[in-house]
Amino acid sequence: MDEQPVRPGRRGVLKALTLGVPGAWAVRTHAATREQDASQDKPAQGDHADHGKAGTARPLKFFNAEEAAAVDAIVARLIPADELGPGAKEAGVTAFLDEQLAGAWGSGDQFYRQGPFEPGTPEQGYQLSFTPAEMMRRGLASLDAAARKQDGKPYAELSAERQDEWLRQMQAGKADFSPLPSAVFFQALLEGTIEGFFADPMYGGNADMVGWKLVGFPGAYASFSNDIERHGARWDGQPVSIAMARPHVSGVKGGTHG
Amino acid sequence: MAKTLPAVDVAIVGGGWTGAIIGKELAAAGQRVVVLERGEARWPSPDFQGPNVHDELKYTRRHALHQNAATETYTFRNNTRQKALPMRRWQFAYPGTHLGGAGNHWSGAYYRFDPTDFNLRSHYNDRYGAKIFDEDLTSQDWPITYDELEPYFDRFDYLVGASGQAGNIKGQKQEGGNPFEPWRSRPYPNPPMKVPYAAALFGEAARGLGYHPYVQPSALVTRPYVNSEGLPMSACVYCGFCSNFGCEHFAKASPQVCILPVAMKLDTFELRTGTHVLRAELTEDKKRARGVTYVDASGEEVFQPAEIVVFCAFGINNVRLLLLSGIGKPYDPDTGEGVVGRNYTHQTTSGVNLFFDESIHINPFMGAGAVAVTMDDFSADNFDHGPLGFVGGGYIQIQVVSGAPIGYHPTPKGTPSWGSAWKQAVKRYYNHSASITITGSAQPTHGAYLSLDPVYKDAWGQPLLRITYDLPDNDIRLSAFLTQKGDEIGKAMKGVTATEPGPRKRPFTATAYQSTHLTGGAAMGDDPKTSVVNRYGQVWDVPNVFVTGAALFPQNSNYNPTATVGATAYWIVEKIKADYLRSPGPLVT
Q: B573 FRET partner, CA 20 to 30 A, in A194, B432, B502, B555?
């Protein structure tokens, strides 16, 4: 299995693309692995300076290299890295989406897909036949094709200003990605990005719990019995994640619910 | 050709609250009972243990305990002029699946219906005159009264270990309780829940405005408790993973915590999971059910003969089972004839978003599904409806359910939906926001009903249930009134810098979560022309079929349904035990 560490970031992506090595692109390490490693010898660092360090690379399951580059660029604009801390790209949202779209949810395991498909009223909700994975594949292709046509470059290579402008056009439904309404695609991207930024790190995003640290969410915390009536006190503990937990080992054999 | 199994006495469809209650009671009475649960067996241990159960993506976003929309959903339209289309993913409500059903992933908010919920039509007629009802409303009295049901409410209270401060014991008002509470025969078995900050601020403001806030009763126990079945429960720890989750602590009441371990020790009780019931099979004269046909986990069709069939599926799924079985006359909105599917309602929910200055640390993650300060000043008929011109009411509260941030990251209106400005607002407001929630009653109309969809089918080839529904003007006026009251309280709360009231608007949309309280369609009544079942949940036309759950409600109360669902299940099964088993046949003639 090709798990060769690859330096993350656009430079690495571009290099891989330039070299034309299929599958050479890989997103940064699975947060679970890193946190487990960290928990074994030292307390979690809580800084993100080590982002550039070569970690355990994670091969792509769903995206191709161009798609991954586009998603990296998109999520970096939706939740940017800024003075408040890392953004969605640094949080590993591309890896999160790659896992989700490659898995059961991406192929529509919770999505009623029988026809006939008709537009319906706004109150009847989503009525397209795309599964999440199909929508993402088509939407990314449409975006890159449109960006190449209008700006001469794929989305990932545009300036941040142009990238934002494309996102605004999509959100307003003005970009023509037919038959996929660009506003629907935009909404799916935004929801997926927010999920990846805030879901437990075991799913590949929210690396180092940066989403939770941004807002002050304690994560998979066990109990607030002693704190809930300390009104007005700010909770300032460190968050915990499922990803940090050691695998559940039960000494009980043949235990029942009874 | 279906495989036929040896006959049992009782086939129960669904392993949620009512199936567990009725199954256990009848098995203990010596009946051979099989409970057919379409989902998988799931238990607090090992299935819901921490930290893994604290997974918002899995349980809330990916619907781990919700009915799988891919295999079975509802179709929806606002009125009969539209073509119904399938809800391709869940948004408006979260019907449950797997053992315990919605009674496992619920929040535990625990209210009894008000006495006037049971005699709604006659009560409002008497107090305000018949004109208080808009012409389109088909609201009607229940066939039973609060007083008749009280002993069964009491019994369910002690099963779930309800926590709360009684406001009225046998007519005696109790200090510190809800002054509007209907009478109860005993105190709550456990004391009220702890109060989170946002709820306390709400209570303070509401009290200042002359209202009567109190701590919401809940089915999360507040201390170690041994329930009426002898099963142990533990105190809630306010972890904030309650609604949509299974409870790891044995604190939130559920069928698998409160009854099933006892039932499963009985030789006469069998739980059969992975069984998707297609229909009840009737005799040729359609006067009697022979049993039920289901598809097992491998896909094989199986016929389970039974003397009694009880539909205990998720609320309105029982209506679908009736329609698929050819039991009862389907409601026709054009003629007003027929009963199955009639009087479908949802619940008229709304809210007021509150934003605080940065000195107020809300800590929204310190909560539980049912931890709230609430008030009944505008519930039921606790206020003068005369000048207002609508029927029904609603409770107003702050409930701190969850701070899980995929779903909870409030920002004020006008905030960009992405980019650095969004990120900044999310950080600014996450710990300095709350929302007032308003849960209002819902009246049924001539045009709101359930039926089988003519086009769309489930994974087993059967028609989906079709929902035709829009909010009646009555409920729009109710929501405007209640939301305005909520906004006034919000504005009076300490530290609030902005309020955003959001009253419910027409048309009803299937794209926004409103509650999982889908009611009606198999109304209980005294008149076979306007009800599907009699006062004991027994189908008028097929007396060995019983129906339970929220499908029995002729209209929806402003209160959460589970206490009334549990109480009516006990009411029904006690009648079966006392009279039906001795002399099978119609219990009301």
A: B555
Q: Distance (Å, rounded) from C-alpha B426 to C-alpha B86?
A: 34
Q: Which of A36, A112, A167 is the best residue to mutate to test the B interface, defined by the most B CB atoms within 10 Å of its own CB?
A: A112
pTM: 0.92
Q: Measured at the alpha carbon of residue B101, what is the angle toward residues B97 and B104, in degrees to the nearest 5?
A: 125
- Indicate the helix (H) or strand (E) that contains B350: strand B348-356
pLDDT digits (tens, 9 = 90+) for B306-331: 999 999 999 999 999 999 999 999 99
Using an 8 Å Cβ cutoff, are B126 and B118 in contact?
Answer: no
Q: Using only C-alpha atoms, what is the Rg of chain A?
A: 20
Distance from CA of A164 to the nearest CA of B (A): 9
Over the stretch B206-219, which tens digit does the pLDDT of each residue have?
Answer: 999 999 999 999 99
Token pair listed for B495: 């530290």
B467, B75 Cβ separation under 8 angstroms: yes
Q: What is the largest CA-CA distance in chain B?
A: 72
All residues of chain B having their beta carbon less than 8 Å from the beta carbon of residue A78 are: 418-419
d(CA B311, CA B297): 20
Q: pLDDT tens for residues B518-530?
A: 999 999 999 999 9
For residues B193 and B390, the answer to whether their CB atoms sit within 8 Å is no
- Reduced to 3 states (helix: H, G, I; strand: E, B; else coil), residue B15 is coil
Residues of A in contact with B77 (CB under 8 A): 121, 124
Strand partners, B276: B295
Give the number of other Cβ atoms within 10 Å of residue B174's Cβ.
15
Torsion of CA A243, A249, A252, A257, to 10 degrees: 10
> B259 with B20: CB under 8 angstroms?
yes
Q: What is the C-alpha to C-alpha distance for residues B427 and B410, in angstroms, rounded to an integer?
A: 9
Token pair 């040729």: residue: B284
- The answer, yes or no, to whether the previous bond of B333 is cis (omega within 30 of 0) is no
> Chain A partners of B425 at a C-beta cutoff of 8 Å?
none
Q: Using CA coordinates, name the residue in chain A closest to B433.
A: A215
Pairing relationship of beta strands B214-215 and B372-375 according to DSSP bridges: antiparallel
Judged by CB atoms closer than 8 Å, whether chains meet at B238 and A167 is answered as: no
CA distance A166 to chain B (A): 13
Residue whose tokens read 């009699």: B534
Residue A63 DSSP symbol = -
CB contact under 8 A, A80 and B427: no
Residue B189 DSSP code: S
Q: Name residue B587's amino acid.
A: L
Residue B531 is encoded by which pair of tokens? 């009800």
With CB atoms and an 8 Å threshold, state whether B62 touches A105: yes
> CA quadruple A104, A109, A114, A115: dihedral positive or negative?
negative
Amino acid letter for position B474: N
Domains of chain B: 3-580 (3.50.50.60)
pLDDT range class, residue A21, cuts 50, 70, 90? very low
